[in-house]
Batch of 2 targets.
Target 1
Amino acid sequence: MQTALAEAALRVADPAAVLMLFMGTTLGVIFGALPGLGTITALAVVLPFTFGMDPMLAMFMYSGIISSGTFGGSVPAILLNTPGTPPNAATCLDGYPMTRRGEGARALAVSATACFVGSLGGAVILLALLPVVKPVVYAFGPPEFFWLVVFGLVTIAFAAKGNMVKGLVGGGLGILLSLIGYTEMYGVYRYTLDSEYLWDGIPMVPFVVGMLAVSELISYSASGGVTASAAAGATGADWRRQTLQGIRDTFSRPLAVGRATAIGAGIGVIPGVGAGVASFLSYVVAIQGSDKPETFGSGNLEGIIASETANDAKDGGSLLPTVAFGIPGSADMALLLGAFVLHGLQPGPLLLRDHMDLVYALLLGIVISQILTSGLGLMAVPWLARLSTLPSRAIAPFVLVLVFVGMYMLRTSIFDVGLAVAAGMFGYCMRRYGFPLITVVIGFILGPLAEQAFLQSLMISDGRYDIFYTQPIVIVLMILTLATVTLPFVKSLRRWVTEKGTGGS
Amino acid sequence: MHFVKLLAIGLVSGALVLANAPETPAAYPDKPITVIVPFGAGGAYGRLGRKMGADLEKKLGVPVVVKNNPGAGGRKGAVVLFKSKPDGYTIGFVHFVSFQSNEILRGKKASIDYNKFKIILKLTDAKQFVFVNKKSPIKSLADFKKAGRPIKFATTGVGAVTWVEANALGATLGFPVKFVTGYKNLPKAALAVARGDAEAGAGGYVHVRNVLDDLRILAFISDKKDPNLPDIPTTTELGYSQLSVLGVPRIMAAPPGTPDDKLQVIRKAMQEIVDDAAFKEWALKGGFFLNPDGPDATWKVLQANAKIMEGLKPLLKKK
């Protein structure tokens, strides 16, 4: 064990390794920050180039990409209300309101720090869970998945705050749209109108980016002015002060950070649940644990901590089933798995026995790359935050071009660009009529996961519903979900009763 | 000024080269060849395509560009290949079974007549083991019927290869089959059986390898043994040879109308590559079951596959 770790550590000092890490990190940040492109695209792009490389060096490259994408994706989420990757969507909820308040640098600094802590925590949790990975992976089947995803769907209720009906309509619409396309489960095509484009369903990335980014850019241009008029006169010193404040903010909330790390890594370990669930679920839990739940969604930095920490901790978590079992914990891990095999390595118990140095190399790479990302990110924050004081007519066209290029690059399909535009115009109309768009996105991302887990559970139980409330883990998850939904009502009821009581006396 | 001079020299010499170009066609191949892979870069098709591309490049002496063109279960890339110029410079994998199950089992006619592709060579077969959870009382294929109850299989989806295999097993051995569908990939379906979501499943060696402790492997759906698990009997050995054609043949093909002499050049190069010891070792390590076959034998297997699917059609209408 120790020798493998030492060997990996020695290799990190190799100049070639440093170069690979640096390249991976740079690529990861850029691909993460460009709306539409993400870790998966970056991995797919470099995969062919690493074909002939020394496996250890290739691992450094991959780990650089995997760990840096999250922070990259949070930058446009915070500054432009445009998630760089779909899991960053939860970061928009509080990050963007902070930017509008003129606290963009603080929000970015919180994100950079949270990513760093999350990544480190995820790596530690991975090492701790390595011996017990099998029972953990075996414990989670479709019924457990179902409750986890439903827990994540509860975010809709919180995101829809203030306008529950429109929020729920949005969530339902998102779920309906996600049903389009071929369903493996029954082998039928749903609502595809015989269009080959729709066979694979509405592609997630162009849809989400169109809905959130393009519609934001339209309303941005329509309203004119600047995002953060409050920060119009801010000087460099002001931004630097905010950055330091953001770092302090994160470290002064160990409970929030620890909770989000545990949730992110935990979700990561369970194969197939995905980063979207990790960040949304962590967000819901953060609201539950807060004594000021009403401030979430209007710029509470604990919201950013919750989603970004969980998002990054997930990397360590999802690496676990990938290396120990050969079963990818997430979509980017599926590509990583392909990369392993490309290098003649077979993930699984044998890899842990024979190539533990490579596993350590990946982990060390993830942590070092995160230090690079967060460190350089924090240095750049005061400049990045200035974007929020630029007039919208300067920013919108520039970002729109980036979005279109990203959409096209993804699958070299011009239809994807068209879809992003259409989703953007639709999103703009919804926005004008006061529908919270994020609920549509949550429904769209989580709806299919819930449907699949629900139907699979019923197939396992031969149609009996008791599968959803008889297993121990299922019961715990169910109680947590129900409590989350009902707690706000109980609280307001109690407040109402006490107010009435004091009013009467 | 210097730049303009250089440009002029370049243009003049370029024109001279063009003017002197021979009028008779040069030996094939004399320019880059594109290999279309209808799936993503990390998957089995992607890895095989990239390895084959690299080896072809060495063998033929021209650059070989491997292009991933994923979508619609491998059918999108095949449509692109079908419509490419049939000049021998665009070839690619065609995932024929996806077209077959889409047409026969789901009633979706493809926009192209995939039977018109020119098959170059079948490289590998993705063949599956049939397995059950270790705690299951079923110890052999014959036990499936003796159990006297429906057997539940974990599979990726209705119409998928493992779904066809499970149904074909049920129809041949005479036992009712049920499914838990929707697992994202075969390793996850194998994990589901190991966990106990379903009693039985099908998958290749690379898919079951990590959960072998919790599975009991009953048979290999093939006429040849898998070198990774040589003790497992094949369906042919067990007397069900009609099942042995099932699986996914990974077939390299060219657009319809590609001249036969050019196909012959590529076929010969590919055959030499797969016969090479280093390639064989690479394939074994990567979990590929090398089983090269020419066009005639490959079409025969595809027809047998289609016939089995036709036989399963009534199962879908029943619901």
Note: The first strand of chain B starts at residue 33 and ends at 37.
Target 2
Amino acid sequence: MRALVTGAGGFLGRALVGELRSEGDDVRAVVRPSSAVPAELEGATVVRADLRAPAAIGPDALDGVDVIYHLAASLMPPWRSMFESNVIATEHLVAALASAGWRGRFVHVSTFSVYGLNQLPAGATVDEDTPLEPEPAQRDDYAWTKLLQERLIRAAAQEQGFELAIVRPGAVYGPGRSWQHRIGRQLSERAVVMFGGGNALPLTYVENTASLISAAGRHPAAAGQVFNAVDPAPPTQREFLARWRRARGGRTVVIPVPLAVLRAAGAAYTAAEQRSRGAVSPPALLRPYVITPTMRPFRYAPSRAERVLGWRAPIAPDEGIRRTLDE
Amino acid sequence: MSGEPIRVAVVGLGGIADAHLRKLRWIADAQVVGVCDLSASLTEAVADRFGVAGAYTDVDRMLAETRPHAVHVLTPPQSHPPLASAALASGAHVLVEKPVAVTPDAYAGLRDAARAAGRHLVEDLNYRFQRVTLQALEAVRSGAIGRPVTLEAAMSVGLASGAYTDPDAPHFAHRLPGGALFNFVSHPASIVAAFLGAHDGVRVARRRLGAASLGDDELTALVTAGGASATITVTSHAQPSSFPVAIRGTEGALAFDVFTQRLRISHRSGRLGRIADDVAGGAAAIGQALAGAGRAFGGRNDYVEGLGTLLDRFYDSLRTGGPPPLDPAEMDASNALVFALVDEANAL
């Protein structure tokens, strides 16, 4: 198969290119013009393009492509830069598909953040049927732009008649990316803040995520489906942090902050915002609607991919954590 | 316009539009009725984010359908003249981002069009309206340091990182006639114009351009104005970002930083006077340090604090029919200095 991968130079993109290459695919890896080409892309054809520019992807790049894996995205503030990288870039990509008359399988890599988690009670199970966020503009900028992106792609798939499969990963981790913002914040090399502690982390090991995305691109039954990517039996924040600390020689100080403290600080900031006519602005972290989705305890159903595609995660969760933290 | 909301439209939804739209939320009778940009998805997203009913990609259509009392023109400066002219012709007052225009003729054309239409044309010289700048102006105008003799304005901005250095998506400022620093030089020029008035002489002493002009501009200039002399420096090399201004007068001196909003005035003479100045300065420094800590933890965004004051005064002037917050003669002086600086810099 011939595959085009956007965001190929990123953490997940590199793993996906490796996975597709191991399946024998002919891979075109889209990398920004000024970025270095990572060693993991060896064997793939590098396509230099910045999707933020109109017509960055021409008909040549799409020629003979069976599957497009759309991973290009940005988490970097401010929101406009996320908007350009996540929404405008996608707008340009689907416009390129329309003008080329492309009809193949489009695998869109979305995120858990698109679910309406504020509306779910604590302890609820999150699966692919969980309703999407009803108040996107209230959420954090990443969730908001990823929701807009998903809406855009669904509309394009319907209008242009290409097949769509959506993969929504939880928290992707692996060697080189061990910290999870759902735990809290790293203050320095030696100190971290942990918000809460007892919530399960929806971890998905990077190779497992890449394997599921690849399956969504090649399995006939994946068309029109959504698949969450989350490893079974996820550890709690406290359990993961204990292993994370141990792997770093146990020298990191953990400062636990109960969620009630965050909520009280958020309420104080909101009051100050009113009093100061907006001169004081609470950080996103302290806006209740932003923080709740990552801080409320949820359960995570096994991926629909197991049932529909017969897919199995190649790496056991414990092994993923060991490779990430201990090697 | 009493009792009726002031209808506001915004053209150009780049980064600075957020600051304007956030501030507009707190102006009770201002109602943003339309936002406009070339990208439909960006326009819809901004309308959604800020609760604006009208999302447009055609400015003429927005002006016709929303009939705004005021239009904020926030696009790259090359496009200000046609957009601001259209807004003025529709009967709206205009608040325009700096610089107003990229040529003296385009600037004069807009200013004259506003005058002929009987509408305000106000440039967003936000640092001219920072609390500390207004305090310093009040001190100088009340004679606290006598007649100003010298002024130094040194602006250090973070051009060397972030949006200005993304080679895959070049910032519009690199295409300005004076390069990226043309996007900043209005600020020190506005300080010189506010404190000293119109310039009568300009010499650019040094101009440095980095590789491909990416975030590496620097300019140093000598200016004479109102019988005083001024030095202006704009650089991206000195970090962290700061904007210190020092003014020495015939009877004292003052110094302030536009970004950190710290002000110190020394105007007493004699040994005891100097001690009193030192004690007062120390007490002020402690107070300002505490206020700075409050800002750091308070999520306070000082760099647009002056924009809030400017907008409050702009909308006050629309409500009352009073004069604009920025005297047109002062805006002329500030822009004339900008054009002179760019001409001199480009001649080097």
Note: The longest strand of chain B covers residues 199-208.
